[in-house]
Automatic annotation (TrEMBL), chains A, B, C, D:
Keywords: Glycosidase, Hydrolase. Residues 9-462 form the Glycosyl hydrolases family 39 N-terminal catalytic domain. It comes from the Bacteria. InterPro entries: GH, GH39_cat, Glyco_hydro_39, Glycosyl_Hydrolase_39. The active site is at E160 (proton donor). The keyword Metal-binding does not apply. Gene3D superfamilies: Glycosidases (3.20.20.80), Glycosyl hydrolase domain, family 39 (2.60.40.1500). GO terms for biological process: carbohydrate metabolic process. This is Xylan 1,4-beta-xylosidase. Belongs to the glycosyl hydrolase 39 family. One of its GO terms (molecular function) is hydrolase activity, hydrolyzing O-glycosyl compounds.
Length: 498, 498, 498, 498
């Protein structure tokens, strides 16, 4: 009795692969640092995201907003030195800003509440005119520097205003005011800019989205998108600096996203309005130890197979571990959000993204999808991903329709045995400050194991069987093989004649 | 019943590790090319040889020697444009020339016999004065450009004069004349230069070495070294462009080397004169298909454990596959001599060298050696290599003396399963001109599998057991582990709490 | 009494600026070398050509064509290892091959005549079928590797068949046969390929072009372009290795080009057929000492202002000094064809090209041109070039129409005083093999002197005056200036308060 | 009547050239940023300093010191993530930290006073034991990571405690306590560390140095060096963001340094104790507009010719313009301290340092020095620098003793005409955020003009005359010329035959 799955080439499953649309980042000021840029360059070379979204555009380390006294009058001046330096680099690296407008410059703030180690001020502006002037001036400056493409950079107003830490008292009417003023000011400058919100997270999602849309409707505003976040763990247990969390059921979280989608579509005016997940990950803390594990890679593999079903896009939080919300990390494997750890060491989840990016290059014709696999049909090839979320090793067997050709099967395997930098670091003694040799060992251990095999199709079908170890993520490609040996070269003889 | 090998820390086995002393190269003119330099840079970064030796210094593509007519008289002029360009790069890459003097510039040759696709003239000079002037002038030029270190660059007179292809009629007296004239001219310029010969290969070794030394003795010449080559296959069977060879018994070849050593030592005047193997490999042909295999890597692992016993040094022929003696290769895996294939793809044998280089860094205290392993004791660590020449998988078990410490075991495995670019290329269809994506897959598959483990010593000893698959070469390091977890970080909990 | 030239913004002078269409190269095999690639990368970064054309595609160092015996039969095999390596690099550097088909592989040749130090065989094929098979197979291979863009790479049949050194006996009917066979075979494969000829040079231009077109007409062939060369010196006087030539009158040479153009247009069938200058320079020898001078830069500046008048394109022979037609250069300044000398030292003529490329970026609206200047009107700016061919220093004064704005004048000056690497090398003693420090001094001296000034327009015009020293080439840009000083920054006070 | 200066080769003038001993930097935390590292790499490549000194090692952005509560007890933990990242880069760039110990981590501070935009806490520790533990632990960590060389890295206790902004109330007894506790703790750990102070600046120099040495004497402490700063402008006039200052008389400032030297030597115990200028520049403000001028370059040229007379070393404040003490700069030319401006644009003063570094490479035999020139005699060459501080152009004429050889004179000129990026930026309109093209123009204009000439010595002497424009700094080298033209190459004919 076999579990072989019969896959039909003519199947066409909805699969909106937006793996490379956007990625999260530590606060923008960190984009000045070289470790950050090294990591981003590594990520862009191997994966290549289109947009990048982070907090802190208007926080004082980016230093845009300044007031000074002259003749007894307070005047405003803008400093674009750092924002230009940051965005110049982004563009050099082939990535564009997804503009999250926030937080509040101290000099413009109405209060003193701050969030994070780096003290982002999270209070409303003392004067909304100062705020909208700053926003619009920035857009003008960016357009002068980067040209008309700036009109296409997505804009999001603030971050998680439904949490009191991020927005003073989580004051809903005040946020709606902020949204409205910002929206109108930008559209007055140029209505082609794309402005969305409310960028909420986790708590009272439904109430906020519904209220936001009601507010928009009443104010005759049509936002260009609705944005929210998506994390998938229970409230963590803390120990010292670290957070241990239980994963939630994936389906339950997908249902939650669908309910947001449904709310939007329940408004005639906003039906089919794009919904962007502007942050997602498993754990929502920057010391969420799960982030560095192979389990995380496998769990995210499932997420990427489904998130496009109800969302226009989804942005992993974050590309790298240069991130200071809860302070400077003490060790390289501290449960940071990043796809890569310090010294550009790719974590297992990095490969989940790299694999989905490769799927995208093969094409968008999805012919099979279940809870632990997905298959795409491309030109003269199949490509797919198999993952194993915390189960014992299993065998995944497919029968694919095919001409009677010869194929090469290429597999790239990431699992606890073959590509587990966290374990290597642990075995080395969990060094807080690994030396060059230790870094090299960890890094060299962090790449997928690559294997090839030759498989022949017969009787109009080809059998494919993949063994998925615990928490494995396996990318495979099955390509038609054109065998063109050189004159006199006989591989069997090479192996046996000696 | 265990096969456990008890290793005593106090053992001290003669082990003259000269893995990085010298490496061979395709003709020097090829050092102008970028693929050659890329491969050399890769080799230097990962292994780092001290010297490089190749043919063709005086062949016309390097273009040193020129004659012209003026007022009815033939005059000589030297052109150092290319030799400087080549040696500048070598020095940039941290490697120095091992100066093999040859072949003959066409304008200086007494005959028309050439060797190789690139037509190196292998006849004596029409006038020995022209030859010695050219040699000495070159040394003067090099000294002006590179300083006094040039005095330490080893010099070897010609290549394999005992083969008629390399030296017209394999004329022994003529070679001895060449040696004498060259030796005396160089020493007359500066006696500190190190000049050796006769660079023979394979046939009539004993007769040539003995005769050479008799000649030297009679002529009151004391060469600075005796040089010869060392290949370890039977005469090949050819098929199309390719050569299939059977490996010879390793011990038989070691004995042959020892007999050369014994001949030298039988001369009172030359006792202990350094003997350099200025070329060695398994197959001696540039289409020797064995070169690209895991078997080659394992066989060479044994060679490197023993070649220092009777030789001052030994130079693998060659570092890379940019090599044109029998023409331009049609495919990337064509049985070239190189440690790396085109596009800087490391072949399995590359790692044998990288591993012996790591051994050298750990130290020179050899505490164990047998036919398929070697162990070094360093500071707070053991390092060793285990290889398997064409046997079924076996388990190698050691019991090492030790304090009751905790160790991390790091292994790097190269075998037919884990690091076999030849197979991957074959499975891809043996593409003659792989595209970028194929090159990437092959290259990514060509790195060792790295694993770590934690092992505790007890009762004053630590057990180590390594599984060696067919044609495996495994590097291991066993280092004292200092475990310093950060506050609240619990690796077991990281894995289990979710 | 002023010589001020009044320039009218509304003027529109025909100026077909094809400065960056194509550039020449030493034989293709040299493209394997790293110095060549360094120079090409430098040239592409600063100038950026679209196509590159050189000899030797089928010469044996590229090693495409091979014959072997099997079962008593001679068979053919192709080797694309090197041609792929070369073209991969070209494409990496943003340049495409302009495919000159030649010379003859030795194994395919009907005779033994060769040309150059590197011995390109210049005889017809022993069998035209072998030739056309080789050509078409190469095109198929290139298309498989580089895609459909290969269809747009220009093709030229052979080089300078009107010279007996380049084509055995300069046999016209035999060349026409070669052209016809090649043309028909390529078009039979895919008629979209662009095939031209006869690539003639210097002698009997008129007769060859006319006869070529008569032949085409009679054979019902419509070539996609007519190609010829253009050199502008008298027969040189030789001294040792070097060639000293007198420049010819520029107008006389332009007239000669126009006569070719007129011949083409005199055929009804070929009227307006594109004419490509597939080689041009002053001296046609690779030891033409004039190439390294500032005079050459100024003379070529005039050429670039006019060559587009009667030609579709024109390709400077060559981009760099890696070039071996008459052997390996003995010194870095040996009168090579290159825009750059060894070690990527730009020669004065390099800047002539860089300046015309900048003109092209400003736009194609030419508002003024005379024998020593040209002016383009762009968006909010003027740009132009002034040159001085061997005259005493003169002042060039323009009055440009303008709004009453403030302008910044940017000038980049290359002349005998400010940017003359040849003189610096000479003053250093003409070192044949300069050391690193000498190379750095020469290179640092080889960049234009950059100056700026602020000029105000008044009464609807702005005055511009440029002093052109002997053999100067001066690029200028006159841009509207937006002065935005920071709060409290006063440049005058910066200079005076101390 | 000539002003020719007769220079005697046998002269030997005291000239302690420490141009490359140490350089200043913005706060250490900025060393994480990529612009900072790019600038440092540029500086190291062209100049190459041995040490780098800056503030903020213990400030919270470097994040070394942390307290946490456990079981009701406050505990301490150290985080070396960032300090390692910074120092790793320093060492990669060939520079070592000159360890300035300061400022106070907020959690360890006794008060809330801070200095600068980046809020360095400048109050004494709440507990000196916490401070000395932190210092000694850091030294231990650095030694474990970087080896025994750490023992040679100079240490300085705090910065400018004689200014109340830098040290709460400029409390002298409290500083002496800090010094003593720190000194004793470090020496107790390892007495080979080199510990100095009091790092004072400007005000009451004499009183502080004398009192410091009295204190040391009374406490039986022998510091390894005495440190102070050296700025040479009057109190500035401010306008908006910018500071305009008048230069002080150079001799007056040299005398002031000599008086410090004399105080030290007046103590028997401290006679000849090294005195380090751990900061010097003209203006002491980070908006000192003079820094960007050619005048600054010329003034510093004089400083570098004399500062070694009374000091062991002197460290220019600072290498680059990444510096935030008074906030983020609004424009690239804002009077920052740096030798280089943003985007690695070298300011004129950069070249003063580069030129003195070249002098050092030539040798230390000074044969002439006056108020606007210095000359060194090296092997077969002379090298020197001529500067002009704010005077009209003058001619400097020397007669140097010499064999009757031929010389090449190489000059590198930096003056207001030839190398003045500030003017170019001004002419471009003083753009706050220059685009790529503007940056390129400014940068290309910021390199010295290089000229060569051939000069013949006669009658045992050679005449040298150099024209120094206003605020020029001119480096010259006069090297024996070996003229080796190639066969047939005649430079005169190259220029004239055409």
């Amino acid at each position: 009795m076999s579990n072989k799955i019969i896959v039909n080439d003519n199947e066409s499953i909805r699969f909106n692969n937006k793996v490379d649309f956007c990625v999260g980042t530590g606060r923008l000021g960190l984009a000045l640092t070289s470790e950050y840029l090294d990591e981003l360059e590594f990520v862009q070379r191997e994966i290549g995201f289109k947009y990048i979204r982070g907090h802190g555009l208007f926080t004082d380390d980016v230093a845009i907003y300044h007031e000074y006294e002259e003749d007894g009058v307070t005047k405003v001046e803008y400093n674009y030195t750092y924002v230009d330096r940051i965005f110049d680099k982004y563009i050099e690296l082939g990535i564009r800003p997804f503009l999250e407008l926030g937080f509040m410059p101290k000099a413009m703030a109405s209060g003193t509440q701050t969030i994070f180690y780096w003290e982002g001020n999270t209070t409303p502006p003392k004067d909304y005119k100062l705020w909208t002037d700053m926003v619009v001036n920035l857009l003008k400056h960016l357009r002068a520097r980067y040209g008309e493409e700036v009109l296409t950079w997505p804009i999001e107003v603030w971050n998680e205003p439904n949490l009191p830490g991020f927005w003073y008292k989580a004051d809903m009417p005040e946020y709606f005011k902020l949204f409205k003023e910002t929206f109108l000011a930008i559209k007055a400058y140029d209505e082609r800019f794309q402005v969305g919100g409310p960028a909420i997270c986790g708590v009272n999602d439904e109430e906020w989205i519904r209220s936001f849309l009601v507010f928009c409707k009443e104010n005759n505003i049509k936002p260009d998108s609705v944005t929210r976040h998506h994390y998938t763990v229970e409230f963590p247990e803390y120990d010292g600096q670290y957070a241990y969390s239980k994963l939630e059921d994936a389906q339950m979280r997908f249902d939650n996203l669908q309910s947001s989608r449904d709310i939007i579509d329940s408004f005639e005016e906003f039906k089919n309005l794009p919904m962007h997940i502007t942050e997602f990950n498993t754990s929502y803390t920057a010391r969420g130890v799960i982030h560095d594990t192979n389990l995380n890679a496998a769990y995210i593999a499932q997420q990427l197979s489904r998130l496009g079903d109800m969302n226009e896009s989804y942005s992993y939080w974050t590309f790298g571990d240069v991130f200071e919300e809860v302070g400077v990390p003490f060790t390289p494997f501290h449960g940071g959000f990043g796809l890569v750890a310090a010294n550009c060491i790719p974590k297992p989840t990095f490969w989940t993204f790299a694999f989905y990016k490769k799927l995208k290059e093969v094409g968008d014709k999805c012919i099979y999808r279940d809870d632990d696999s997905i298959i795409i049909k491309g030109d003269k090839k199949y490509a797919g991903i198999v993952w194993n979320i915390d189960k014992d090793e299993f065998l995944k067997e497919f029968e694919l329709g095919s001409d009677d050709k010869e194929y090469v099967l290429i597999t790239k395997t990431v699992d606890e045995e073959t590509c587990n930098p966290l374990k290597v670091w642990h075995d080395l003694g969990e060094p807080a400050n690994p030396d060059k040799e230790e870094v090299k060992i960890i890094k060299d251990s962090a790449f997928p194991s690559i294997k090839t095999d030759v498989i022949k199709a017969a009787d109009g079908k080809v059998d494919l069987s993949l063994k998925a170890g615990k928490n494995a993520v396996i990318y495979f490609e099955l390509k038609e093989r054109e065998f063109t040996p050189d004159r006199g070269y006989n591989y069997e003889k090479v192996l046996t004649f000696h």
